[in-house]
What does this fold into?
Amino acid sequence: MADERILVIEDEKKISEIIRSYLERDGFAVTVAGTGAEALHLLKDCYDLIILDLMLPDMDGESICSSLRGFSDIPLIMLTAKSSEEDRIKGLGLGADDYVVKPFSPRELVARVRAQLRRTKRGEKKVLSFNNGTLRIDTLCMAALKAGEPLSLTVTEFRILLLLAEKPRMVFSRLQIVNAVQGYDFEGYDRVIDAHIKNIRHKIEDNPQKPVFLKTVYGAGYKFIGTPD
Ligand code: CA
It folds into this structure.
């Protein structure tokens, strides 16, 4: 099995190098991003856990965390000099799994990384697989594969597909879909959802006219009809 991959988002080189050396010594594969922009770019790849410094030169860690949580359940440990209870609660409210205050013990950080990874492994299925592996959805990496080939879905397309695939055969109305993936509705959302579904079908179906995964339920909405493996 490949090493577990950790993305460290931290602009202070001294700190990121200490974290890197401790994690690598423990067998992790470490990638460091020094800015928020670099981090968002690197997040297109798949990691097992993220360590996120809250104060970055170009953007604050909170906004990285909340945008990440829009599409991924990847374990995230916040690292910060902000130590007030309010800051910690805010961080956890944004979806951080744990919170480490600077200055910190690198060994304790590694222990917390291990604890988070154990939790993930015990948790829900990470990969959903349908129709004998024809379609696979990796919820941690936000990736979907068709016959083993990665599909280039947008974040919204991925979230719609996951929403439906998590509950096979359940009919979702367009309003339910827009609420679940955007968090609000807006004028014309039904046509927007139809357009997203059309795009997803073009990517996941052999014949979008005869879908075997995303079926239209006339007058009601859409449902996922793949067979779980
Ligand atoms: Ca910093």
